Amino acid sequence: MSLQVILLPLFVEVILTFVLWFWMAALRSHDFSSGAARPESIALREPNWPKRTTQVANSFANQFELPVLFYVLTILAYVTHQATIVFVALAWVFVIFRVLHAYVHVTSNIVRLRGSLYAVAALALAINWVIYIVEVLTGT
Q: Of 25-29, 43-47, 49-53, 70-74, which range is least confident?
């Protein structure tokens, strides 16, 4: 499997993270310039940002939770030559559901829907990890 095919899902996840980061930065900048937030009211991570900014910031922060395991697994699978078509398919399931999760997070923020999307992504990642661990430990 080519490097591009293996890493493309990872690149999409990275792009999602940067999009959310730039969006959050723009919202925070606007909040400061409009007076909706003051540095002294958020300096110690107090939750004093406007709701919309908090939504996007929470989605951005979420990209440093479960996706960290995805990044590690993708790099390990590539380096150890364990990235199969099943690996790539599950990687795409993970990333697609992460994108959907982020979309819901920053729009309707319907918690049950967001949770279901999160669960599908988490399950795909967990299956990929189990397959990888079994393949490495059994030498297949």
A: 43-47
Compute the radius of gyration of the chain from its Cα atoms. 18
Structure confidence by residue, pLDDT tens digits, 86-109 = 999 999 999 999 999 999 999 999
Task: Match 């599950």 to its residue by tokens.
Answer: 90
What is the distance between the terminal CA atoms of the chain, rounded to a whole angstrom?
A: 16
Domain range spanning residue 15? Answer: 3-138
Nearest to 60 by CA among 24, 85, 31: 24
Distance, CA of 23 to chain centre? 15
Q: Work out how many domains the chain is built from and give that number.
A: 1
User: What's the CATH number where 91 sits?
Assistant: 1.20.120.550
Q: Please enumerate in sequence order all residues whose Cβ is within 8 A of that of 66, keeping only pairs 6 or more positions apart, or say none.
A: 98, 118, 121, 122, 125
The predicted model scores a pTM of 0.94
Instruction: Give the amino acid at 83.
Output: A
